[in-house]
Write a structure and sequence with these properties.
The complex is a heterodimer of chains A (673) and B (49). Chain A is of the alpha/beta class and 673 residues long. Chain A contains 16 helices and 15 strands. Among the domains of chain A are: 208-259 and 431-480; 281-426. Chain A starts with a strand and ends in a 6-residue tail after the last strand. The mean pLDDT of chain A is 85. Chain B has one domain. In chain B, helix 1 packs antiparallel against helix 2. Chain B is elongated, with a radius of gyration of 12 Å. Classes of the chains: A alpha/beta (673), B mainly alpha (49).
Amino acid sequence: MLIKSLRLKNFRQFEDITLAFSTDPEKNVTVLVGGNTFGKTTLIRAFLWCLYKQNDFKDKNLLGNDIAKCMAPTQRKIVSVAISLEHGGFDFTIETHQEYAVDGSGKPFPSNQPITSVSKKDPKTGITTPLSNDNAAIEIERILPLALQPYFFFDGETNPIEDIGKRRNLEGAITQIMGLDKKEDLEGYFDSHRSDSVCSKFEVRRISTDDAESVALRAELERCQNDLQKVTEEANGKRANVDLLEDELRKKEAKIDLFKSVESQQNDLKNKFRILDQERSSREENFAALIEAINAGQCALGDFFGSVAYAKADIERSYSSTQANERSLSHIEVKAIDEIEGKGVCICGRHFRKGDDAWANLEAQKDFISPNDFGMNLKTLCGTMDQETISSRIFYKNVIRYSSTTVKAISDIEDVKSQIDQIEKDIEGKPDVGKLQAEARQIRNDIDTNKSAADYDEKERIPALNGQIDSLGNKIKKLSQDCEANQKIDYYLSYCKRIHDMLAISLASQRQEVRIALQKKVNEIFHSIFGPARNITIDPNFSVSSLVSDGSLSLDESNGLEAMKNFSFVGGLIYLAKNADKIGNGSDDLGLGEEGEIYPLVMDAPFSKCDGEPITKICSTLPSMCNQIIIIIMEKDYNAAKQALGGRTGKIYRIKKLSETSSEIKEDTADVR
Amino acid sequence: MDSTPDKAKVKEILKLSYKTMVADQGLKKTKSAIASDIANIVEEVLRGC
């Protein structure tokens, strides 16, 4: 398969473009250069929609927005993609188109299903044959089986080249490329245990005695064959589930990897919500304590004011009982005058004696001194006040403490809330990585469950049923008539068994030869890019690993090394496809198998995860690995690749973004050397 | 009737069966129908032995 051209009409941001790709074996590289959101991925998806009606766009809309904007609800527009290609000595034109309308709000929607037409031209006779709809799908499947397209068309978003080594269904792809799947099918038709085999077709013609035992044995045989078919289908279904789940897991892991930085923000967010809950509880607790302190304080204050009121009443009563006037001595007690009289010396220094005028004057002052209980009342009041002041201080302290912690909790809550708002803003629209990880864990469990169940089917149930079928077949054979017709059936069956055994042996040896040939080629390419320091191994399940020179498995691989490994593997696959008729048919050539086929390598942003040197190394080897390369690339990566691609570049196109909804592509003839 | 399969006949059956199977699969025939077609080939090649 060599792609000659691609035409897009009204397809997403491309109104009408035609790209002719280089098919010159000496200049087999076509480069399309464009920035992010220019429509690079759209081009890869246009191929897949045209060939398989596969629509990987999130919004599923294919009609260009600029065109949709100008449409009236009654109008219809056709979106179409056409590919012209060479395959198996014929020229094919494959065109898929779909009609679009717009609703009342101007939103485009498809008004019919996509239709694919294929025309096949024999260049020798010049005769072109249009193929019917059914035959068109069959022909496309022959040109490039849907299951194989992910190995030749790399969409940087959903099917990046760097994921190829992680794929678990490589075995199926290689089996298909080499035509081993058809050989396996043929082996199945000669498997005597299967009810839909050639052997069963002969067995039903066997002339048996009609005794009860024969009838029962035949019924039992039929039941076992049906069970075998059911169990085999179940096991295949479980294996297919494993493939699907592994594919889903790979995508999920890629997404988790992509949003790794979001994970810490999401964990931080969860933590902040926890802190918010704690702060809220703290606020509630402190507020409750504040209320309690106030309630307790009210009682203490009540006691205080009660005591003060009581003491005041006593003082007032005492005070009113004195004849206080301007001559009153309000700050002296009778005892003080008695002491002065006892000393015979006044505080002014004058000496006196009992009975003299001075003494009589002091005695007279006693009339103006308050009664003793007035002072006592004052003392009591002071004591009460001291005591109540302590209670008041405790009350005050508690109120201050709880009110300040409540206020602090309120302020902390506001802080945490604003931090939460900021994180939520930062991670808005991004997936929940924790949820993705939980989903990935669930998928891993499902994979294990399916694998264990399929293993049990294949290792226990199927062999047991095969044994039962063999035993029943022998019993029936013993009971059947010894006639010429039955002898013939046995004769045919002996051929069937021989063919089945030959196919089984041939398949096992071919798989081994394919694995060795692939490993050899992949290493040849890898060493030419990376050097001999490491080797790539491909195990019996066609899983790819790279080994360091001492033979230990390398787990820590840089993006550049990973890219070199993956490109080498893709190169190996292309080599296998090209030489499918030559590889693995050495020792027991049965004359079955696929013709060798060439495939293009179509890649979107293949170097997005590696830098200058690996790009240069890959690009200097890439053109010799493949018959045709179509590479859609960023300007910076092209600058790194340009020199290494050298004279192998046949065509260069530049994608220009005209607006958010429109791009154009123009050939850059100046840059082709 | 010689019960030891003849190598040339085995290869002939194989080639014809393979071609038939591929063509039948392209026509989306059922497994049972494909098996019948292959059984006819086996019989055809071995007839008269």
